[in-house]
Protein 1
Amino acid sequence: MIVPDDEGVNLSRTAKSKNTSLQSADHEVPGMRAESLRNHNLQLLTYRIITGSEVMSRADLAHETGLNRSTVTRLIEHLLDFGIIREGSTRVGPSGRPSIMLTPARRTHGGIGAEVGRDYISACVMDLRGNIIAEQFDQVDVPAYSPQSTLGKLATMVNELTSQIQHSGLSLCGITCGFSGIISSSTSNLHMSPHLGWRNIDLEKHFRSKLHIEVPVDYQNTANLSALAESIARQKTGHELSDFIFISQNSAIGSALVLDGKVSSGLHGWAGEIAHITVSDEDKPCDCGAVGCLDAYIDKANLLERAGLPANAPWEQLFASLHKGNAQVTETVRLCGRYLGRALSTYINLVDVTTIVLGGVLKKLLPYYEDALRDELTRRALCSNWMEIDLQESIVKEGSSLQGAAWNSLLRFLSAPESWQRPTDIALSYFPVDETPTTFID
């Protein structure tokens, strides 16, 4: 089950888990009004159906959540009426009685994800089944433009996306914009993004004013969104993780901390920033203003420069050199593994989480630096003396942060049943029938 809250998104799936913050309630509890109780249970059923790895019937949901059958039946009718779920195939149970399976509705409600990278902007619309309905991508040298100009371009892209589907009747429920850097959890202010070259930018002011639609807008760190996409993908495939450190690299290093199924951003919004842990006594300057940071050694430009390659070379050139056995490139990647191991050891010692999920280029480079990484973890992580540190590769394809942004928009919408609107008949018939979901899993 997934429960959005003020500090992050709870990704714990099982309703009866002792760690989940959303429990079933058949009877009114002190301080909870009937409407609140109903919304609470609607969320409980919704998240189980939307993110579960198995399709379930009304009876299955009643058994798993502890709600009585009549309550589940009544709430399911509401979810069907508002286009949140749909009835699917029929399954005959052990008793011989047929049961109708319930699945996420297709193309009734859509969440918009948008992202600003160092050299691109992108946006997509995703439905409740995780299908991408429309998307756009534009190559942009973001540091060459002002933040105001880039945010205007992103708003224009979102406007074009909404125009593409304006006659479909699809209900757009929100927008989430992702950025690398430190974003306040209480305001829309981006404090700094070294790789974009941005500081103290009011994202709301420069983005929303250019939008043509009135929907809720959220602003998130891209690594947190990638961790969200990873968690949902693992839930939907039955391989969920409740606690893990997520770290990925494309042009910059991004990381996120998931505790008890929730992406944790800390009190102010910048928890989990592994890129700026000190890993060397050298006074190598980092774009953040400090020296000796992990990012100063293994971000794309610095890594390529140390490997003897042009700072703007594509990643493919690095991999080609590795395949040829280039000694300088091979040693550079191994050294990056050591720096990464030092940063992760500090991280593990502080937060007591021993599962690490690697994404992006870090996943692809793992065979070339894994031994160096594990050596540093063994030497420096305290827990390595009595337990194994689990290294896992991300199961999500590239573009996980954009997927996470769209999911975040949908989950924020699902967390507020009082705001739901019924889909129009057009939305239910506009798109051609296609029961094959978009594949995001590697």
Note: The chain has three domains: 35-104, 109-225+399-418, 240-393.
Protein 2
Amino acid sequence: MDQRYWHLRSSQLFERLNSEQITRLERTSRSKSFAKGELVYLPSDEADCVILTVSGRIKLYTITSDGKQAVLAFIDPGEVFGELPVVTGGQRDEYAEAMERTTLVIVPGSEIRHLMGNHPDFMFGITKLIGLRRQRFERRLKSLLFRSNRERLAHLLVELAQQYGLRNGHSEIELSLKLSHQELANVIGSTRESVTLLLGDLQVENLIAIRRRRIVIRDLPALAAEVDQPVPTIANGTRTEGTASLTNRPKSGTTK
């Protein structure tokens, strides 16, 4: 049995499907690998597939009117992306770029629409996914519009702690995702210089530390309080390390 079967079976979106349905998806889908910095798709590409991340990490972003990146989301192994225009019809409206060597399973849009039309549980699952992702985008937009640079950075660090943080045994939380100062700036809609200064301030205040180019959060409750966020629960243990060092002009090699 092809490995795609097990990747699809383990995805939360497809977990409600039976073996026959997963087998059909496995037979009609294909796997493809992308190098770091390579584009998976571009805005205005026709949306004819939903994509499952098997390994690596994907960054979704747009380009602002002044030519800067605005990061929308990071997509980790086991997560799908590119589903909205497949469901609603239309074209892609963001860039999808591999942040490191990444393997994807590409599922035809026709199969997704077939499942939506014939399996209410799947319809519920993909509708829930779209709703949660839209909420995430809306929260980020509100943060960009109504918060200061420091508040946006604090909010992002709390969000990253929840998704990528692990306690290191000393009440500190280490982020497994490495992001450069420029990449942090792209997420919060700021400049690299401003982010560098803000990170320095947070270190002086003993809220964070930076060790081996990795952010360590030393006082998560204080960061969360700055932006009126609940303190997330952080697990103990280890995660697969993720690195991110992006270029302004990624290589092409897209799949629609």
Note: The chain has two domains: 8-144, 147-226.
Protein 3
Amino acid sequence: MMKSTVAFLVILCMVRATESIWLTLPSSGTKCVSEEIQNNVVVLGDYVVVSEDHTHDTPTISVKVTSPYGSNLHHAENSTHGQFAFTTHEAGNYLACFWVDGYNHDKGDVSVNLDWKTGIAAKDWESVARKEKIEGVELELRKLEGAVEAIHENLLFLKSKEAEMRNVSENTNARVAWFSMVSVSVCIVVSALQLWYLKRFFQKKKLI
């Protein structure tokens, strides 16, 4: 009972870190998947072309994965399946783009299944169990510990993003307030100049 409960908690913690995505690629054009990931996080992706037409060869695709600053992390052509794995070195949006190879354009849309894992979900727990000689409840507790650490790191990341957004908001509000004060000052000066000009005009015309 305890083992199943621990496993259930681990699954709940890992749900957001694992995504299975179905993409329908048009015969021409590109489809991309992105995720905002913090620094020093393991990312693992498996993709496979799914074809229901068994009378013809499976169409091939090209894949490109890039970092937030445009660094090429994975690139493959003429593929029906593949895998990419990397550890992030910068926080931001990581982009995976898929498109159908040129000579397959006459075969219509292509379906691709992408299994995208990050953080604790991408860890090889079988290797950890063999290396540390743990199993059963102890292994599940280790998974839970890793999930808690991942959640804590995500909370710290969200906290830093919130602080960054708050600073941007405060700077924007300060600039708006300064601009408003300048606008009011300009209006007052212009109004005073208009009154002074009108007064001189009427004095010259001896109307006042």
Note: The chain is about 45% helix and 30% strand.
